[in-house]
Design a protein that fits this description.
Layout (H helix, E strand, L loop, with lengths): L1 H26 L14 H36 L1
Helix pairs in contact: 1-2
Length: 78
Amino acid sequence: MPSVINTALVGMQASQRAVMAESRAANRVGLGPRGEEAVRNLPGHLIGVRNAQRSFEANLSVLRAADKMLGTLLDIHA
């Protein structure tokens, strides 16, 4: 059980890092070789943020299920 909880927490942390990275990338404004604003892949970064959000939610569901199972096991043995 602890390894499931640890895996879910590690996944949630990875999702948080992905959201931060995609957000920073979406906010970056670059200049092309002739000084013009470079084309940013804003839709791609927004999709990355959404994917990281879904990953976080999935890991949170795993954490909640593990917590519920652990509570049930404790209730049975008490």
